[in-house]
Design a protein that fits this description.
- By secondary structure, the protein is mainly alpha-helical.
- The protein folds into two domains: 256 residues, Glutathione S-transferase Yfyf (Class Pi), Chain A, domain 2 (Up-down Bundle), CATH 1.20.1050.10; 36 residues.
- It is 59% helix and 6% strand.
- It has twelve helices and five strands.
- A five-stranded mixed sheet has the order 1-3-2-4-5.
- A hairpin with a 4-residue loop joins β4 and β5.
- α4 packs across α7, α5 packs across α6 and α8 packs across α10.
- Its main location: mitochondrion.
- InterPro entries: Glutathione-S-Trfase_C_sf (IPR036282), Metaxin_GST (IPR033468), Mito_Protein_Transport_Metaxin (IPR050931), Sam37/metaxin_N (IPR019564).
- It holds the Pfam family GST_C_6.
- This is Metaxin.
- It comes from Adineta ricciae.
């Protein structure tokens, strides 16, 4: 699938690779949603590609900005892509009358309090982690890549939390993260008020950042979590998310919903995929049992040379 995001400004890149759509979302990944919103706010002409091979999904970090006919990696991840846009003299914050200090302060607050709580809900909460992994599993090809990917992300977030908050009483740390996120949601509700965007009539990079983590929380598989319910109870935040989805990303969402290569929901796994996954599970089980039996001495392999 290839979908254009508006057509005014242009940069020296040919495409953006993202994780696929989910329900009403043009992508189920927070960072990808941040980038999509930022590019849409910037009115950039870029083609979106989400019908990638499973090898690409497993190998590359997404979102990935490519140039020179998709052969050169320009930037990987939300912050790097936004920085690339700014270096190309396309900066939506420069076009607004908002004080840069206010933008930086709110962005830092979101990054330090709200984002960790969303990541905790997605990857550390036992109730929702399997659901999140299942969403990522489809483009990854199912077991075992999805399991490996999910475990890597979970361990990475745990390490980040340990460095930031320390190793003592990890469960209490998670509760603290949740309480700080609730206060940040209250603050966002107050700052947004009845305005279309956080700082007025025009969107900024902070709006893209907030949207990227709010949208999959409200409309994703963890929408019944405590954090999602708390955010959804703020009507102006729900309207904020839905407004961006409809006004700025509506064409992209319709494009993805009408494309055969990208699904807007988690489809039922085809029979051949289910059979492949069953064979993979059985194969891994057999290899594990054989390795255990060999190293425990239950079986012995002798090789005799015949002269």
């Amino acid at each position: 699938m290839s979908s254009p995001i508006t057509t005014e400004s242009k940069l020296a890149f040919t495409s953006l690779r993202i994780w696929p759509a989910y329900g009403a979302l043009p992508s189920f990944d927070p960072e990808c949603l941040c980038v999509l919103a930022h590019l849409a706010f910037s009115r950039l002409n870029v083609h979106i590609k989400s019908n990638l091979s499973r090898f690409i999904f497993a190998k590359e970090r997404l979102p990935l900005l490519l140039g020179d006919n998709d052969k050169i990696s320009l930037a990987v991840g939300y912050e790097a892509i936004v920085d690339h846009c700014r270096k190309s003299h396309i900066d939506i914050d420069e076009q607004s009358s908002v004080d840069v200090a206010d933008l930086l302060a709110l962005n830092a607050l979101i990054k330090s309090t709200f984002v960790p709580a969303v990541l905790d809900t997605f990857w550390l909460d036992d109730t929702y982690r399997s659901s999140i992994i299942n969403v990522y599993a489809r483009p990854l090809g199912g077991f075992p890549l999805a399991f490996i990917y999910g475990k890597q992300i979970t361990e990475k977030i745990k390490d980040q939390f340990s460095i930031t908050y320390g190793d003592k009483n990890f469960e209490q740390t998670r509760k603290t993260i949740f309480e700080k996120a609730k206060k940040t949601i209250d603050h966002l509700t107050f700052v947004l008020g009845k305005k279309p965007f956080l700082f007025g009539a025009s969107p900024t990079s902070v709006d893209a950042y907030v949207f990227g983590y709010l949208a999959p929380l409200i409309h994703g598989p963890a929408s019944n979590s405590g954090l999602a319910r708390y955010a959804s109870s703020r009507q102006n935040l729900r309207d904020f998310v839905d407004r961006i989805l409809t006004v700025y990303l509506g064409d992209l969402a319709r494009d993805s919903s009408s494309s055969e290569s990208v699904s807007t929901s988690v489809p039922a796994m085809p029979k051949e995929d289910r059979l492949r996954d069953k064979i993979a599970v059985i194969g891994v089980g057999i290899l594990t049992m054989c390795a255990y039996a060999y190293f425990s001495g239950l079986i012995r392999i002798e090789i005799n040379q015949v002269e």
